[in-house]
């Protein structure tokens, strides 16, 4: 079987997540296997800034980006959870508790973003 190489991208894919997340590890292995160039941003180590989160929220709905099913979110106090679906409160929450961000976040360039792991959507976006 021929190895697929996605060379249509002039730039590099940016993928954001947490290194020890199973879904992120799966995504990185997939990219490596398909020889897709990427830059990985571990936001557990480097954090997230307001400008980046605002950019994501232009393309991804806040109720999709904030993972309310995560252990971290469920363990927050009611006061911290209050208003999580308000853009500004969500940004503050994600900056303080990066583990509540659904992952991975894929920046494919030119305002194209994907969220989570969907091999079919990723393959379609890269072809």
Automatic annotation (TrEMBL):
Q: Which InterPro entries match?
A: Arsenate_reductase-like, Thioredoxin-like_sf, Tscrpt_reg_Spx/MgsR
Q: Which NCBIfam families would you find in this protein's record?
A: arsC_related (TIGR01617)
Q: Which family does it belong to?
A: Belongs to the ArsC family.
Q: What is this protein called?
A: ArsC family reductase
Q: Which organism is it from?
A: Nemorincola caseinilytica
